[in-house]
Design a protein that fits this description.
Layout lengths: L7 H12 L8 H4 L15 E4 L7 H13 L6 H13 L3 H29 L16 H5 L3 H18 L3 E4 L2 H14 L6 E4 H12 L1 E14 L2 H6 L4 H8 L1 E6 L17 H4 L1 H16 L5 E4 L2 H13 L5 E4 H11 L1 E3 L24 H12 L7 H4 L2 H5 L8 H13 L5 H8 L7 H5 L6 H15 L5
Parallel strand pairs: 1-2, 2-3, 4-5, 4-6, 6-7
Antiparallel strand pairs: 4-8
Helix pairs in contact: 1-4, 3-5, 3-14, 5-15, 9-11, 13-14, 16-19, 16-22, 19-22
Bound molecules: iron/sulfur cluster (SF4) (2 copies).
């Protein structure tokens, strides 16, 4: 299926996801390097460790992201997306990325290795599919290419069945969300169990009754990734794990758990990198004010945004993956205590997801009109919208502004196509709006359906 023509960068990212397996098009050869000599190939007892398409290449994305700032005024992100295919034709793309940004990638590759080390030491058996690991395709969902996402999900389902995969353990909360929430929406018989790393680690630490010894005193804070905390409701596990590391002084940031703040990713780092960067600074300042020496989180995109934000402000605060902290403490020593059964709550703060009858434009229009007509224009959703916050509460880029735009677009009111693309794609999909809306609109999901409608109806003028 040909991809609909959409802005260069989204087209570039989506084609790379489908054809090469990751948004940047780095390729499987570099993506699997982190696991060489570490894991066996193929499912072990139906279970795989799933690296996903972000962790293995996030350092390259970080390099490209920082480059957009340096090139500000000279070229924009769409120009960079035009250069990518030319470099690929010249066969210098992946080599160039490795030479330029390979060092940046180590922190993400180490996080994957550390996660495997921790799981193994907790008695979890698993293998890795190496080049055969099918990408989740979550970027297609993010950018509103829902027909393509559905087709891709079907392919992944078939690959897992052929390979005998029944259980997936992953470090990536965006992939966890895709497999746990989006796949069942698009596939009738999706039956793969998907667990996030912290769910297993917290459970096993409790069952074994152990504490880990960091071997030094350290003040740390934790940034809850929105996909993990707000969307999946996984909060207790991370706090429990942190409480089981001896030597930590844990400092909670003001916005945390299901009320976490946004680090600026959600795909915006590709479509509007300068805006994404601005959003990250807000969060970085807040984390810095906790007085922590180190910031931990559990999402590759959040690590990238926070690292870039701290760097931009000239702060030397380290940002790293929680898996690497657990591994470091585990290497230092384990203190045996009493096994316990701990109940980890699952938080449900988002409204039910609306479902269109099909992904055809008419059915998307029907859903979008029905839902956006329920909007009371109260603007509660605007208060915590990180984009509106970064743009001095600019209505057109706020959560409410996007609902108004989608309603106008579907009704056929005159709306400039560039404005449609700009406003729909300047959202980080953090779902803070969905959490606060008093009439229960799932604003974030409506924005994704709005993107799909704009593309498939041709009303975005592209
Ligand atoms: S519109 Fe909603 S999902 Fe998008 S950035 Fe604002 S609060 Fe987050
Ligand atoms: S909070 Fe809900 S009802 Fe109020 S403006 Fe936002 S989307 Fe509309």
């Amino acid at each position: 299926m040909e991809l609909t023509v959409i802005p260069q960068i989204v087209k570039f990212a989506s084609e790379n996801t489908r054809e090469i397996g990751d948004v940047l098009g780095i390729g499987p050869e570099l993506r699997v390097r982190w696991a060489e000599g570490l894991l066996d190939k193929g499912p072990v007892e139906d279970t795989i460790f799933y690296a996903g398409e972000m962790y293995p290449v996030m350092g390259y994305a970080e390099g490209a992201f920082r480059l957009t700032k340096r090139l500000e005024g000279l070229m924009n992100i769409n120009s960079l997306a035009r250069i990518g295919p030319i470099m690929k034709k010249l066969r210098v793309y992946a080599i160039g990325a490795r030479a330029l940004w390979g060092k940046n990638n180590e922190i993400y590759e180490n996080a994957l290795r550390d996660a495997v080390y921790v799981l193994r030491n907790l008695g979890v058996k698993m293998s890795y599919l190496f080049e055969e690991e099918p990408p989740s395709g979550v970027a297609l969902h993010t950018y509103g290419l829902l027909k393509e996402f559905k087709e891709h999900a079907k392919w992944v389902q078939n690959r897992f069945r052929e390979l005998g995969v029944k259980r997936v353990i992953t470090l990536d909360p965006i992939v966890t969300t895709a497999f746990r929430l989006y796949y069942p929406e698009f596939l009738e018989d999706w039956d793969v169990e998907v667990l996030h790393f912290v769910e297993i680690v917290a459970k096993r630490i409790a069952e074994l009754g152990i504490k880990l010894k960091l071997g030094r005193k350290e003040k740390v804070t934790y940034h809850d990734p929105c996909y993990l905390a707000r969307t999946l409701g996984i909060v207790d596990e991370t706090r429990f794990i942190l409480s089981r590391i001896d030597g930590l002084e844990y400092l909670e940031p003001p916005r945390h758990g299901v009320n976490t703040g946004c680090s600026g990713d959600g795909g915006l780092e590709l479509t509007q990198p300068l805006l994404a960067r601005k959003i990250s600074l807000d969060r970085v300042k807040e984390l810095r004010e906790t007085g922590a020496e180190k910031v931990y989180t559990s999402c590759p995109a959040c690590i990238m945004m926070l690292r870039t934000g701290f760097n931009a402000l000239g702060y030397r605060t380290d940002v790293n993956d929680l898996a690497s902290l657990i591994a470091e403490a585990m290497r230092n020593g384990i203190i045996e205590e009493k096994p316990a059964t701990v109940k980890f709550r699952r938080y449900h703060v988002l409204p039910e997801s609306p479902k269109p009858k099909s992904l055809d434009s008419d059915d998307l229009a029907e859903l979008l009109l029905r839902e956006t007509d329920r909007c009371k224009k109260c603007a509660f959703c605007n208060v915590e919208c990180p984009v509106a916050r970064a743009l001095d509460k600019l209505e057109s880029r706020s959560a409410r502004g996007r609902m108004t735009l989608i309603n106008s677009l579907v009704r056929g009111d005159p709306v400039r196509p560039e404005a449609v693309l700009d406003r729909l794609y300047s959202c980080v999909l953090c779902a803070q709006c969905s959490q606060t809306c008093p009439v229960g609109l799932h604003v974030q999901e409506l924005i994704i359906y709005g993107r799909a409608y704009a593309i498939y109806s041709g009303k975005a003028g592209v």
